[in-house]
C-alpha cells in the first residue's frame, strides 16, 4: 500500500475484509472503499462492485481464498475484477495466502487471467500452508517495476526478513504436490468435524470452500448480535470465535450482525472437544 497509494487515492476491497487491510490502507493515507460479499456463497454483489470503482481507484486489493468468509471466487468473478481494473487503469494486489487450502473448489490465481499479469501483484505466505504463522515469511510476484516499487518501501521498513526461515520455507515450497493435497485433505476433515458440531449446536453453517474458517448464522439460536455472543461464548462453553462485523465498516457490520467466524486449524481432538462443548450451548443461553 505504501508503495502505490496515498491521500486522495482509493483502495477497493471486498467486505468483510481481513482486518489488516483497513489498517494498512489507513497507514497509507488512502481511502478504503468496499464492495459487499453476500451470503450464502459470499461472492460479491457484482453491481455494487462495479459501482464502487471510481476515477480515484488506484488499487483493488483482492483476497482469494477469502478470510473471513471462506469463499473461493470463480473465474467469472475474478475476470470481472480484472476487466474493471483495466477499465479504471488500476492495480490488482491479490492476497492468495490460502491458495493451497481449498476443498474441491479450484483456486485460480488472478495473475493467470487474460489482461491481468501486467497490472497484478500476487502475495502469498508460509503462514497458512505450513502452519508457521509466527515465521512471517511471505513473498510477492509481479511485473519488475511493481516489485521494485515494493522493494523500495520494504528497504526502509524492515530491510530483510528472517533469513534462515526463508531457506527453510524455500525447501518446503519444493515439496511434491502430494504434500499440498495432503494438507488440504486433512484440513477438509477438520472443517467437517467443526461444521458438524456447529450444525448440531443449532447454528446455520456456511460451508467454506477454502481457508480454515467457517462462518455461522447465530439467528436460529434466537440471538441477533454476534459481537455479544462472541463476548459470552468463552464463559458459557469455553470456545472462542470472532464476530464478522469486526471485519467490516459500519454498514457492512449491520449486514453481517448475526455472523460468527470459527477457526478449524486445530488438532482433531480439540475440534471434537469444541463440538461437544458447543452442543451444550443452547441450554445455557
Ligand atoms: C487474508 C490474509 N492475508 C494475510 C495474512 C497474514 O499472513 P502472514 O502472517 O503469514 O503474513 C493473513 C493472516 O491471518 C490473512 O488471513
Written overview of the protein:
This protein has helices at residues 19-28, 46-52, 75-87, 126-129, 144-154, 163-173, 177-200, 226-237, 250-255, 268-278, 281-284, and strands spanning 10-15, 31-38, 43-44, 57-63, 91-95, 120-125, 138-141, 204-206, 213-217, 242-243, 259-263. The mean pLDDT is 97. Helix 7 packs parallel to helix 10. The termini are far apart. Strands 3-2-1-4-5-6-7 form a 7-stranded mixed sheet. The chain has a 4-stranded antiparallel sheet with strand order 8-9-11-10, with helices on one face. It has 2 domains: 10-173, Aspartate Aminotransferase, domain 2 (3-Layer(aba) Sandwich); 178-284, Aspartate Aminotransferase, domain 1 (Alpha-Beta Complex), CATH 3.90.1150.10. The longest helix is centred in the middle third of the chain and has 24 residues, at 177-200. The chain has 285 residues and is α/β, with parallel strands linked by helices. Residues 18, 63, 67, 95, 97, 125, 127, 133, 136, 138 line the site of pyridoxal-5'-phosphate (PLP).
Shape category: globular
Number of helices: 11
Q: Which structural class do the helices and strands define?
A: alpha/beta
Mean pLDDT: 97
Main sheet characteristics: 7 strands, mixed
What's the structural domain tally?
A: 2
Low-confidence stretches: none
Widest β-sheet, arrangement of strands:
3-2-1-4-5-6-7
Estimate percent helicity: 25-40%
Looking at how many chains there are and whether they match, the oligomeric state comes to: single chain
Please state the CA-atom Rg, rounded to the nearest Å.
Answer: 19 Å
CATH C-level category of the largest domain: Alpha Beta
The CATH homology group name of the largest domain: Type I PLP-dependent aspartate aminotransferase-like (Major domain)
Amino acid at each position: 500500500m505504501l508503495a502505490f497509494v496515498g491521500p486522495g487515492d482509493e483502495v477497493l476491497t471486498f467486505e468483510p475484509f481481513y482486518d489488516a487491510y483497513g489498517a494498512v490502507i489507513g497507514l497509507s493515507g488512502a481511502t478504503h472503499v468496499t464492495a459487499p460479499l453476500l451470503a450464502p456463497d459470499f461472492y460479491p454483489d457484482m453491481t455494487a462492485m462495479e459501482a464502487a470503482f471510481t476515477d480515484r481507484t488506484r488499487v483493488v486489493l483482492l483476497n482469494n481464498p477469502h478470510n473471513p468468509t471462506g469463499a473461493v471466487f470463480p473465474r467469472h468473478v475474478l475476470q470481472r475484477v480484472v476487466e474493471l481494473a483495466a477499465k479504471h487503469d488500476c492495480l490488482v494486489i491479490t492476497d492468495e495466502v490460502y491458495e493451497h487450502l481449498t476443498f474441491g473448489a479450484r483456486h485460480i490465481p488472478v495473475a493467470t487471467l487474460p489482461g491481468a499479469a501486467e497490472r497484478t501483484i500476487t502475495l502469498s505466505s508460509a503462514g497458512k500452508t505450513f502452519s508457521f504463522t509466527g515465521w512471517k515469511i511471505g513473498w510477492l510476484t509481479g511485473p519488475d517495476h511493481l516489485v521494485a516499487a515494493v522493494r523500495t518501501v520494504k528497504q526502509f521498513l524492515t530491510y530483510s526478513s528472517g533469513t534462515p526461515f526463508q531457506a527453510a520455507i524455500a525447501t518446503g515450497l519444493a515439496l511434491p504436490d502430494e504434500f499440498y493435497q495432503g494438507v488440504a485433505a486433512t484440513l477438509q476433515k477438520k472443517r467437517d468435524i467443526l461444521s458438524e458440531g456447529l450444525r448440531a449446536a443449532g447454528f446455520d453453517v456456511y460451508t467454506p470452500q477454502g481457508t480454515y474458517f467457517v462462518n455461522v448464522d447465530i439467528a436460529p439460536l434466537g440471538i441477533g448480535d454476534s459481537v455479544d455472543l462472541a463476548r459470552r461464548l468463552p464463559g458459557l462453553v469455553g470456545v472462542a470465535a470472532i464476530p464478522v462485523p469486526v471485519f467490516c465498516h459500519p454498514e457492512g457490520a449491520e449486514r453481517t450482525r448475526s455472523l460468527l467466524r470459527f477457526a478449524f486449524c486445530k488438532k482433531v481432538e480439540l475440534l471434537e472437544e469444541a463440538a461437544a462443548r458447543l452442543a451444550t450451548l443452547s441450554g445455557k443461553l
